Amino acid sequence: MNSSTNSGLFLVMAALFSMAIMGCGTTAHVEKDDAVNFKNYKTYSWVSEKEKSLKDRHSNNLIDSHVKAAVAKELQKNGWVETRSAPQVLLDYDIMVEDNVKKDNNPLYSRPYSRYYYNPVTRRIISFYYPSQLMGFESSEIPYKEGTLTLHMIDNSTNKLIWQGWSSDEVASRNFSTKELNSRVRAILKKFNPSEG
Predict the structure, then answer these.
(1) CA neighbor of 132 nearest in space, from 108, 162, 106
(2) Neighbours of 145 (CB within 10 A)
(3) Which end of the chain, N or C, is less surrounded by CB atoms within 10 Å?
(4) Sign of the CA dihedral 12, 17, 18, 20?
(5) Are the beta carbons of 154 and 162 closer than 8 angstroms?
(6) Do the beta carbons of residue 104 and residue 142 sit within 8 Å?
(7) What's the pTM value of the predicted model, to 2 decimals?
(8) What share of the chain is helix, strand, coil (3-state, %, to 5)?
(9) 191, 165 in Cβ contact below 8 A?
């Protein structure tokens, strides 16, 4: 096998590995007001604690700063700037962690075994092998914590919700880790494309 064949094989394997990694990434969903032209927006600010209307607000200051930093990093890629003076868009977020259950179906197989028979014609003992067989499936329920991060964009002049994105996935504990927050923010804002209008 020559070096060009080896390098070609390596590229194919690398591409397959990349696709497998991307397929396992965090998924996100978005909804937007189709009548809004997002090209007209360039400045934003976060909704203050006094102005927040959503219930059960997450009060962890560390999580709050991590979410805002991650959002700022992604929005800067679209040319958006945070400002306290007459922002065009108000941003808000909501975090929810709840207990959930997922069902797992595992196949059940019989044990393989061998049986021995005496053949009177040949006067020999013959061995017959019986392989394992699928007997059915065993269902089990596995408890886990599901965390959802939702981002809201509100037009500051009309006070109307114009865009929202959310991502739900399994989390390790009651609180989101920084890595989990960054992953969800990236997944959500990857679907925010103001150039599309």
Answers:
(1) 108
(2) 14
(3) N
(4) positive
(5) yes
(6) yes
(7) 0.64
(8) 30, 40, 30
(9) yes
Tokens standing for 13? Answer: 């394997």
Beta strand 29-32 with 113-119 is: unpaired
Q: Name the E strands within 35-184.
A: 43-46, 81-82, 89-109, 113-119, 124-130, 134-155, 160-171
DSSP state of 174: S
168 CB-near residues (< 8 Å, 6+ apart): 146, 147, 148
Residue with tokens 């390790």: 172
Backbone angles phi, psi at 109, to 5 degrees: -120, 145
